[in-house]
Amino acid sequence: MVRAVVLPAVGAPPEIVEIDLPEPGPGRVRIRLAAAGVCHSDLSLTNGVLSHPVPLVLGHEGAGTVTAVGEGVTAVAPGDRVVINWAPSCGACHFCGLGEPWLCANAMAGCAVPYARRRDDGSDLHPGLGTGAFAEETVVPERAVLPLPDGVPPDDAALLGCAVLTGYGAVHNAARVRAGESVAVFGVGGVGLAVLQSARIAGAGPIVAVDVSPEKEELARAAGATDFVLAADEPARRIRKITGGIGADHAVECVGRAETIRAAWSSTRRGGRTTVVGIGGKEQKVSFSAIEIFHFARTLSGCVYGNSDPARDLPVLAEHVLAGRLDLSGMVTERIGLDGVPAAFDNMRAGRGGRALVVFP
């Protein structure tokens, strides 16, 4: 018997229920979760911004300990501590062949296959984003687990599975920020905090954080922001002033809203780069005039999972954590149980706090 947070239908409130989880079959791994981060992508599953079969077990940013493995599993063994990779690449599709595993055509294949049942009515459940991490235990494919390097706290390690890989990758893989370049970060949630820390690690400066909430300033500055601007206070104009009238070399958008993407674009210098990490709905339309595209010569690019290869990047992140350069605990503004997930969603909708972390006994 396993307790889990289930989304019965798009738009319905999440439910805390008991589920029956099978033992792992061939090529699969069973994990007892230590912690799971509450990510905006989970909220996007509840409201249909991200399409996914339902009913499903929410959660995708997690870490824990392997309890059992199926036939043929060789990468991990019972007792190993692992981070869950919610978008495991297949290694065989066109995009994997190009060396772009973050675009793998088969990464989400596991979402379509039920993996557990509700105990109360026996209905099939899908793993949220192939993972189902808002549960005491889960079962995932072998390629969806990454060994956790020794010394990284198991609770905080959950953030490495999404927010930190995404934020670090946005800075170092997608934008390729160099020392001395200026960076503007729009949205100081979990991913935004990871972007700020990663920009600081890259030696960027100034680093400007933009958010709707003045309460986020302390969090932003602790993560590495040198300046803080409210979203309502003409951020593009303020950022140009901070950067000597030129504009930021880089802007990273972590919200997924048309007006925020537009503001991020407008805040960058001629020839600058705007990297969009936030996931917006289909109704979010961004427009540009042809003359400004020519005149400003800016680059606008999307960023999926930080353009990361988790197997390559996770050891690098762990090294930063162990050296004290990357503070995972500082990103967490509340530690909750499974029962606290609905309230954590409310806080995200209201723009409050950084990362909520579900911690399991």
Quickly list its features:
361 residues, alpha/beta, 26% strand, globular
Describe this structure in words.
The radius of gyration is 20 Å and the shape is globular. Strand 11, helix 4 and strand 12 form a beta-alpha-beta unit. It has helices spanning 40-46, 94-97, 163-175, 190-201, 217-223, 235-242, 258-267, 290-296, 310-322, 341-349; strands at residues 2-7, 15-20, 28-38, 56-57, 61-69, 81-84, 116-118, 124-127, 137-141, 145-147, 183-186, 207-211, 227-230, 248-253, 268-276, 299-302, 332-336, 355-359. By secondary structure, it is an alpha/beta fold. Helix 3 crosses helix 9 (310-322). It is built from ten helices and 18 strands. The longest helix is centred in the middle third of the chain and has 13 residues, at 163-175. The model has no long low-confidence stretch (mean pLDDT 96).
**What proportion strand?**
25-35%
Gyration radius, in Å? 20 Å
Overall morphology: globular
Q: Total number of β-strand segments?
A: 18
The class by helix and strand makeup works out as alpha/beta
Order of helices and strands: EEEHEEEHEEEEHEHEHEHEHEHEHEHE
Overall pLDDT, averaged?
Answer: 96
Helix content: 10-25%
Task: Classify the oligomer.
Answer: single chain
Q: Uncertain spans, ≥5 residues at pLDDT below 50?
A: none
**Continuous helix count:** 10
Largest sheet: 7 strands, mixed
End-to-end distance: 15 Å
